[in-house]
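# nightly structure sweep
# worker-07 picked up a monomer target from the shared queue
# config: single-sequence mode, recycle default, output format = structure tokens
# input follows
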Amino acid sequence: MITYKKVLQDANITPSMQRIKILAYLDNNETHPSADNIYQALKKDMPTLSKTTVYNTLKTLVKHNILKELSLFE
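# output follows
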């Protein structure tokens, strides 16, 4: 079984706890959550998480082709 840590390592991304939790959240939700949705869902368990970290992590995951960005206004 591939772990989120390995997915990040294979993409040459340092697997921080925040990145692992964000990736796990996205993998376990079939919706297309906004960065704010992700932040609100995870801040209870990770009080030091910032919205900036969520945005930066999402950008990094898109840049390394782990996620695809969805634009509603194309």
